[in-house]
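Lab channel / #folding
Pinned by the channel admin:
"Please post every new chain as: sequence first, then the structure tokens as a reply. Keep commentary short and put observations after the output so the thread stays searchable."

First post following the new format, from NK:
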Amino acid sequence: MWYNEMTLMLRHYIDDLGTPPTYADDRLKECLLVSAIRVKNDVDISSYIVSLDSLDITPDPSYGDSRNENFMLLVGYCAAAMITSSEFRTASGRNILVQDGGSVVDMRYVSAQKKLAADFYQATYEKIKLQYSLNNLSGKAIIGPTAICSAYVGGYYGSYGDFRGGFY
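Reply from TO:
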């Protein structure tokens, strides 16, 4: 099933491999489903139906002919970005610096590290999303404006600008 494989991937991304884990499997499954909805909106992937009611993705993106590791990777990084961003917001509310005589307790470092992780996963998600979108441009073209910048004037070619209007 998709949630076994993708939950394990997500646990590795967010380093939640301890015993007991920080996040319950059900919570990670919900996060993966919300991320799958976001990925479907961000990237042109319409072959999957994501249901928060039944907590399922159909067809299973981790099995058989419908296996799509690109989709699984996008969803995993999107979920990791969501979780680490939430952890950063929580940690930033606990920024404290206590000095008492010669001893110091400085918790600002924890928040800074959480922000680095959140930024990393968000940037990586955006990079993978762009790469996926560019790789799936089959049959599409990007066409920009064109201009003729040289014309035959006075017996030689020169760059005099755009003479499409005939004013030369």
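NK: The beta strands are 49-51, 56-58, 97-100, 103-106, 151-153, 156-158.
TO: also worth noting, Residues 2-135 form one domain.
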